[in-house]
Design a protein that fits this description.
Layout: H1 18-22, H2 25-28, H3 33-53, H4 58-73, H5 79-85, H6 88-96, H7 112-132, H8 143-152, H9 162-178, H10 185-188, H11 191-206, H12 223-246, H13 256-263
């Protein structure tokens, strides 16, 4: 029986070009690169929190975060959009990747006025995101792929051991961490490379012996790409902690007004 080609999920994503990464809308507007990274991290954390509150599957939340990162680089992206655009990504992803509905109406109560105004913002935001991304909102995330690779490598048995559980958990942990990467790993590398790098790190930390000396080559991942993603994974947590420490005393700017205040020269006052 021939496979249903429409049901097959592609294992590759649309990747950003060097020019797109170096000329994001925020950088063109004169926002420093470190501040741009801080704002993007804040937007990703908001998107993740929204997905958790909506009780969406992990894959859907990850897809929404990748769509957000793509949008942020686009001509309509930038810091001034985050405060409103954060509403659209989980909902847009649910439409692209439908999930079973939740059945608890009492937990979704809104007044009629609030409902209509929020719905209007949501629809406008979705249209903006779709236009910016040229309607390309399909995202393949590497989470299920990584588990399949672990089974293929024979290190994730049907009767899991403590080591294999640790290996799987650490692998998924690195994949989730990579969503926040300042190197934009999900926009610069394909799911296979992301999955293999997460498995590489997780296996070393879990003490699981992998078959062969260059097993990643079986999955068409070269050593250079593997090394880059591994280093990025390892540095990501420290970078996130540093960002949270930096913004501990005040809120990261998410609107035009807040960004303007943040970029004001030190000592500038309204009367000066």
């Amino acid at each position: 029986m021939a496979p249903d080609l429409e049901s097959l999920v592609p294992l590759s994503n649309s990747l950003a070009t060097v020019e797109q990464i170096s000329t994001s809308s925020s950088s063109i507007d004169g926002v420093p690169s470190d501040l741009e990274s801080s704002i993007r991290l804040a937007g990703l954390e908001i998107t993740q929190a929204a997905g958790i509150l909506l009780r969406l599957p992990q894959d859907t939340v990850a897809q929404a975060m990748v769509i957000f990162t793509r949008f942020y680089l686009g001509p309509e992206g930038g810091s001034y959009r985050i405060n409103s655009a954060k509403v659209g990504f989980p909902d847009l992803t649910r439409k692209a990747f439908p999930q079973p509905p939740l059945h608890n109406p009492e937990s979704y109560y809104l007044s009629e006025g609030t409902y209509h105004s929020t719905r209007s913002v949501l629809l406008r935001t979705e249209a903006l995101v779709l236009r910016t991304l040229s309607f390309d909102v399909k995202v393949t995330v590497p989470h299920h792929l990584a588990l399949t690779y672990l089974q293929t490598l024979g290190v994730l048995p049907s009767n899991p051991t403590s080591k294999s559980r640790s290996l799987a958990a650490r692998t998924i942990g690195y994949l989730n961490l990579g969503l926040f990467s300042p190197q934009l790993l999900y926009l610069t590398h394909q799911p296979t490379t992301l999955a293999i790098a997460a498995i590489y790190l997780a296996s070393r930390e879990s003490g699981v012996k992998m078959p062969g000396t260059a097993w990643w080559e079986v999955f068409d991942v070269d050593r250079e790409d593997l090394g880059f993603v591994v280093v990025a994974y390892r540095s990501c947590e420290a970078w996130i902690n540093g960002e949270r420490e930096k913004w501990k005393e005040h809120v990261c700017p998410l609107t035009v007004y807040e960004l303007g205040k943040e970029l004001e020269p030190v000592g500038t006052t309204e009367g000066s």
